[in-house]
Write a structure and sequence with these properties.
The protein is built from two helices and no strands. It is mostly helical and about 70 residues long. The radius of gyration is 18 Å and the shape is rod-shaped. The mean pLDDT is about 95.
Length: about 70
């Protein structure tokens, strides 16, 4: 994944935290839940990116092994 995707996911996470806090402050349970959902979604996307990055690193390592 590109750096742009990582930035967007982090922004989604931070936006979710802000929504959750606003929901708590105002007693709006729906807004609070929406913020939690946004954070969970961003977390899953970030985890997926980490898996993809690890897979790409593994492929590069295998290529390096066969070059020797």
């Amino acid at each position: 994944m590109g750096i742009g995707d990582k930035i967007n996911n982090k922004a989604e996470e931070l936006g979710g935290k802000a929504k959750e806090a606003a929901g708590q402050a105002t007693g709006d349970e729906r807004l609070e839940a929406e913020g939690q959902k946004d954070q969970a979604s961003a977390g899953l996307k970030q985890a997926g990116e980490k898996v993809k990055d690890a897979a790409a690193d593994a492929v590069e390592n295998v290529k390096d092994i066969f070059k020797k």
